[in-house]
Amino acid sequence: MPVATVTTSAAGSLALLKDDDRDVRVYALEYLLSIVPQFWAEISEELPYIESLADPQVSELPAEARPLAALLCSKVFFYLGERDEAVEFALRASAAFEKEPYGEFKETIIAGCVDRAIADTNAGNKVDSRLEEIVDGVIRQGSSDGAKLAIGLALSLRRLNLIEAIYLQSTAPSEASSSKAVERKSADGILHDEGLLRYILAETIGGAGGSDAWPDSFRRDLLALLLKLFQRTTPSDYNSITQIWVQLGDAAAAGAGIVDLMNKGGDRGRLEAYQIAFDVTDMAPQSFLETLRTKVAESGWGPDGTSGTEEERTNLEEILNGSRIAELSINFLKKHNQTDMSILKVTKDSLEDRYSIYHSAITFTNAYAHCGTTSDRFLRENLDWLGRASNWAKFSATAALGLIHRGSYINGVRVVRPYLPGGAAPSKFSEGGALFALGLIYTGRKEGAEAELRKGLSDVNDPIVQHGAALGLGVSALATGDEDIYDELKAILFQDNATSSEAAGYAMGLVMLGQPSERVLDELIAYAGETQHEKIVRGVAIGTALIMYGKRTAADSVIDKFTKSNDAILRYGGMFVYALAYVGTGDNKVIKQLLHFAVSDVNDDVRRAAVIALGFVLFRNHTQVPRIVQLLAESYNPHVRHGATLALGISCAGTGLEAAIDMLEPMTRDPVDFVRQGAYIALAMILIQQTEAQTPKVKEIRELFAKVVTDKHEDPMARFGASLAQGIIDAGGRNMTISLATRAGTPDMKAIVGMVLFVQFWYWFPLAHFLGLTFQPTTIIAVDDKLRIPKVDFVSWAKPSKFDYPSTAKPVVEKKKEKVNAAVLSTTAKQQARLKSKKAEQGEAMDTDDKPEASSSKTEAKDKESKPTEAPQAIVSNMSRITPQQLPYVTGPFDPSSVASASKSADAAVSTEALAPPKKGRYLPIRGVGDADAFQADKAAAGRARVGWSGKILLVSDTKPDAEGEYIELDATLWPRGVQEEPAAPAAPEPVAAPSAAAAAAAGLNWDGAIPAAFEYEFED
């Protein structure tokens, strides 16, 4: 019987490798490959010799056997833990490696090949053809197992051809929903998985992430490829296509797309064109919109064109110039204003207005709380308080009108007319504030305000007025790149006045936002090195950062100049160049640099700015921010801790992120006042529009704000922050949120700019008004093809309390003083005790006996009553509040008659029982909202995955256009038709005596009531 042999050593086979016969050497290699897992340590002693056998220049092995030697080297290096060498020899092994069965060795080598290919791609080196073969095989395998994995790898390798191939090999998943109203077709007859394209688009818009920062050329090529692939399917996904047009800055293509849809005629084409126009208006910069409007007008669809009907041309123009969305938003905000006036009253009564810091705090709180509502009720009811404003507090108080009336393009000039230069108010502070207010009203829309602002900039030779005019002109001409306005602002800058030139520096950055040119950068950087005014240097530094918005690696040269400067203010500006150039990218290299400056710079302001900048860079990855800034929040340096609070607030705004709240709560008890200030503001940003059902701590934190504001022993800086927090958390009448991104996921330029300038309030309080640019109305407004607002309902598949408005604060009731008992002598007490004991012995009830509780039976009865159960859903009327967190639960619209509800209020109807599945109504959305088959909250998220709409305005198709319909009427006083946006200046009015507070309150809340008198009061010192 033969005995099985057991190999106990590789020495024999290694000896055969040196045999004179080449066939024996080949046999030895094959055998060593089979035993290498057991004897790799012994084989490694002969590794140099085996490497020489794999060398193509050595002829000791036949050419076909050299890959075996390379494979043996690769396996030995694998077991030695030398992955790079193992990969190198595996590539030399070529065909021999491909024949290897899948296992730990092959998977490790493939992973190493992929990593090397990605590293070479990121470094700009040519990828080895052998690496490409292996990676292509991985991608082909991945596309069959999971297309997203293959797409991710192709993105990392920047292989556009592979991305296209993977998409064309995919097939669209079967739609479970039966709500598809339009049959879709593809150019090749196969419906492909457009979810892959949307995944790529989300990655492209959000940045490549980490150290894999894509060059601009690849990004543009990728977007162009996505555009081509999206257009293969009809009807196309215009929601995604619109985002691509904006990202590419291709206004001409967007205009051509809108014109093409309008020319096609019919409800579908017109509705799609209107929807694109609304979406573009929501996410594109002003320069893009101006070019788009020009292209549309050249095609005959402008106001004076001949295409279509006059109504269609007018509607399209009003959408593209932003007036229609502003009209709808301002009506929504006024109609649903839920501002708790008792909070403002308590804050005003608690903060002594004779101090400028407290007067400004109340001003900002009111401006935030009433942003966009046009409600000046608080001002009318507190004219005495308003009259005590002095100097820059008066400037801020007047500028607050700009936030209150934000977006009121028709009435904007009329609102601030009494305070403009030449009006009834002689104060330079109120005149400058009025010009700033005018710019805030017309944010991102210079038509209607430009003439007045340029007049205030040039005609009035006063630095205070010029300060307000410059800020107003900058914010109204946001991102226009207007050279004429830039030159006017430059003239103000070169006056070298600390007040006006600082504002000019900010304004120049606002006008040239994201549009750097060598001339502009050279002028600003050179002047920053010449002036002796720190305020001007700071204005120029932040202005330069604004110019580099979104430029990524193109901003590196400016960053290098600023961060290596000996001037701490320029290094401070360099941190914001990082923040704006790489906003939302999450770039690892940038994060590393910011962390370095946060802990190593010798200047506290620079360190604070570096930490704040982290919030901007990481706002798309907000869940990572608490972990990154955790140690910074515990720093010994209070400036670093303050920066950590704002970084959390900026990145996690509106999310209610529990980790961020848990980190900020202890910081509200920090021993340093401005750290507590930052914690209050950050908590308000995070908890805006959060309910107790979502975030239980929101009630406790609201009470904390009130406690700090009313505590007269608290530090002024902390009270200032708590006051601002009260306005932020209730912004826009509790109908606005804070977000640095649009609903489509694209970075919101206005919001980002507003947040950057808001954090400069550390140096200059009036800049706190810029926070209003970050506020966004939270609503869905369904409109038909005539831009009317039909009375339809949406279903929110969540309990009403989960997203309801917070309850009104209970008024503080003063405790009544208890009556003090008169002193009683001991002898009298003893005598009374003897009398009581005698009565007790006689069986009489004493007066001091406890009486039986009369209400005990009532209490038991109440306990027996069954408590009403809360409905599992809510019916939300058109043009009502729908928060971003609520949106995934929302479906519709449906006809009110098709929705079974027990009761209905002005804002929402709630049934005590589950709703029957609603049927399709008269109005069908042009883009899907939720899933009509999702009748439980747990299905809502799946329905949301197929949503093709991401804006505030939703176009709906009327299936019964000839039938009469019910529509929501808009407030004509807010947007009177036929009135010019900039009426001719009336004659200077006669000075008006200040009315009493009661008389002013009686005037009502409408804009056409008695305009508050100009600030012609006797001010207290």
Task: Please explain how this structure is put together.
The protein has 1021 residues and is mainly α. Among the domains are: 11-150; 584-739, Alpha Horseshoe (Leucine-rich Repeat Variant); 793-807 and 869-958, no CATH class. It is built from 48 helices and twelve strands. The strands form four sheets. The protein has a four-stranded mixed β-sheet with strand order 8-5-12-11, with helices on one face. The protein has a four-stranded antiparallel β-sheet with strand order 9-6-7-10, covered by helices on one side. Helix 15 runs parallel beside helix 17. The longest helix has 22 residues, at 22-43.
Task: Look at the structure and give the CATH class of one domain.
Answer: Mainly Alpha
What is the tally of helical segments? 48
| The CATH homologous superfamily of one domain | Leucine-rich Repeat Variant
Shape: globular
User: What structural class results from the helix and strand content?
Assistant: mainly alpha
Bin the helical content: 40-55%
Summarize the structure.
Mean pLDDT is about 85; it is low at about 175-180, about 845-855, about 900-910, about 930-945 and about 985-1020.
